[in-house]
Amino acid sequence: MLLRLVHWGRPAVPRIVVGGLTALGASLLALAVPQVLRSVVNGPLLTDGSRTAVVEAAGLVLALGVLEAFLVWCRRTLILTPGTGVELTMRRDLFRHLLDLPVEFHDRWSGGQLLSRSMSDLSVIRRWMVFGLVMLCVSATTVVVGVGLMIATAPVLGLVYLAGAVPVVWLGFRFRQDYKVVARRARDQAGDLATTVEESVHGIRVLKAFGRGEDALGDFVRQADELRATEVAKARTQSRVTFALGAIPEAVLAVSLAVGVPLAAAGRVSVGALVAFFATAAIVNAPVERLGNLLAMTLDARAATERFVQVVDTVPTVRDPQAPVALPPRPAGGSLVELDGVHFAHPARGSGPVGEVLAGVDLRLEPGTTTALVGLTGSGKTTLLQLVPRLYDVTAGAVRVDGVDVRDLTRAQLRAAVSVAFEDPILFSASVRENVLLGTPADLPAEEAEDLLQGSLDVARAGFARDLPDGLATVIGEEGLSLSGGQRQRVALARAIAVRPRVLLLDDPLSALDVSTEAQVTARLREVLAGTTTLVVAHRPSTVALADRVAVLEDGRITGVGTHAELLATHAHYRYVLTAQEAVDDAARAADRRAQDTDVREDEERTADEAADEAADEWVETAR
Ligand SMILES: Nc1ncnc2c1ncn2[C@@H]1O[C@H](COP(=O)(O)OP(=O)(O)OP(=O)(O)O)[C@@H](O)[C@H]1O
Asked: Which CDD domains match (predicted)?
């Protein structure tokens, strides 16, 4: 799994390798110190006691120490920057892939899981690459070289020390098995927790309005507690292995001492060799102890990498064709859109006829006309609309624009030709200007962009945006000024119009507007839409009025196409849908009236309160 990182880590490899070599050099220098000790003890100390030799040896140890410190500094400096570069590249690739993945992927994945993958998982990988990986290699090499030196210095004692490796390796293997499960669980739970925070913040108004703050807190605490329990389990597993990796070498050293001293007394091992053996063992013990933490870091990085590649390995199901076809030039009278035997099932609902929302839709949108799509709620109107710009791909049949199957066009070409305004408009944390011009080419001359902006705002009756605190530069969306539902819809409508598309898809874009504003927008749209083929999902008769023709979606098929009057006279289901909607509208209007009455009462009460406050203030002033 970790080898997958080579793809992103390649540019950093030279610096990581050089950094690793400097770290290895530092460790080997540390291992050289006991050998100096050995020669001092066996030479000047035990024989002639020459001061000069001791001073020379001390100078050598000092020089080795300074060089070791310098190499450690080199390692840090060399590896720091490439690690952040790798993290940036991985983050960019992940985000690019997320944008490329189809809507169906985003239906299945929660925001928190994607957020945690792009933030904390990548930080874990970076830390491992620049520290864990390097130190793991250096520690393992130091241990191997150190044990080799110990065997060379005092073979019997070296073999005793080596015997300690058997339980260490076994423990390491057991640790890997246990830790990798909890490491993955912890990362997934962190993602779930991020999802909960994201959803709660997003839906904060609903939580407050329904007084469900305590429940949300309860859910959050439960999840946070599960994560805590997993982290504790992780820490316990890690501390067990760290303890064992610390204790086993110390125990082995005690055994070596018990064996070594009699050997030295018997003259079978020199005193210098014994001193060098234990000094080397003290140096080797440190990386052995570190192995527990480094293994844990490695397994954390493995879990993070697994989660990262899980996303980047997901193959987009909606892709550009191998040999894209070009759209014919824009016809003067407008584009022809055909849906031919279209079937569609949302993947989450299972494939096959049972899960199908659309079961053989045949619909022809004549060039330059506006067609209203009417059907009961949940009948698949939004789904149908989304098949045209390939937010989903049909499961059977075909959607064609000007005779070209939309799957034969590049997505960029298709989406420049087809524009959508959704019922629930999402605005980005950017200025009104940026939001409206979102779909227009980036290289559009400033003057033309300004004309488009002003024209689109006028058609969508979104002129209110000019009166915002900073005019059209006012930041709206999540981080900016909140707009009302109707205002957001109008900005989103302006955004859809600004593209000047061949095909405009409107998913009940005026549902949050009052009837008179809707009438004004409708009138302007009729003028502007001449030459644009439009499909508008309509719930209200007033929206249907926008259309030249109406298509009725019923049981996954189009069961009637005609003018509003024709269908009223001939299509029972159409009459039923409109009547059902009128009943809903009547109920909504009644609710509006009640709310207005309450507002008036509240205003009256407020005025009375304000008057009382003013009287009280006056009284206080007079008293003063
Ligand atoms: N992403 C999805 N995953 C699974 N099922 C979905 C998804 N989106 C919609 N559906 C289902 O597909 C059916 C059609 O939904 P769609 O939103 O297209 O209906 P609609 O006619 O636009 O409804 P409304 O008039 O209420 O907006 C519904 O049963 C809905 O539950």
From this structure: ABC_6TM_Rv0194_D1_like
Q: Where are the domains of the chain?
A: 11-312, 337-570, 572-624
Q: Which pLDDT band, with edges at 50, 70 and 90, does 45 fall under?
A: low
Q: How far apart are the C-alpha atoms of 524 and 24, rounded to whole Å?
A: 74
C-beta neighbour count of 225 within 10 angstroms: 10
pLDDT digits (tens, 9 = 90+) for 214-255: 888 888 999 999 999 999 999 999 998 888 888 888 898 889
Confidence of residue 619 (pLDDT cuts 50, 70, 90): very low
Is there an atom of ligand 1 within 6 Å of 348 CB? Answer: yes
Distance 561 CA to ligand 1 centre (A): 22
Span 498-507, pLDDT tens digits: 888 899 998 8
Token pair recorded at residue 612: 């009382």
Atom of ligand 1 at shortest range from CA of 107: 1
Q: How far is the CA of 138 from the centre of ligand 1 (A)?
A: 57
- Site to substitute for ligand 1 among 349, 351, 383, 391, most atoms within 8 A of C-beta: 383
Across residues 20-40, what is the average pLDDT?
Answer: 80
Of the CATH numbers 3.20.20.105, 3.90.230.10, 3.10.20.30, 3.40.50.300, which one belongs to the domain with range 337-570?
3.40.50.300
Ligand 1 atom nearest to 384, measured from its CA: 18
**The pLDDT of residue 39:** 74
ipTM of model: 0.96
Q: Residue of the nearest CA to atom 7 in ligand 1?
A: 346
What is the pLDDT, as a whole number, of residue 624?
Answer: 38
pLDDT of 64 higher than 50: yes
Q: Which of 484, 382, 478, 389 is CA-nearest to residue 435?
A: 478
User: What's the Rg (C-alpha) of the chain?
Assistant: 36
- For residue 380 and ligand 1, the question of a CB distance below 6 A is answered with yes
CATH topology of domain 11-312: ABC transporter transmembrane region fold (1.20.1560)
With beta carbons less than 8 A apart as the criterion, state whether 544 and 372 touch. Answer: yes
The ligand 1 atom at the shortest distance from the C-alpha of residue 103 is 1
> Does the beta carbon of 107 lie inside 6 Å of ligand 1?
yes
372 Cα to the center of ligand 1, angstroms: 18
SS (H, E, C) 188-254: HHHHHHHHHHHHHHHCHHHHHHCCCHHHHHHHHHHHHHHHHHHHHHHHHHHHHHHHHHHHHHHHHHH
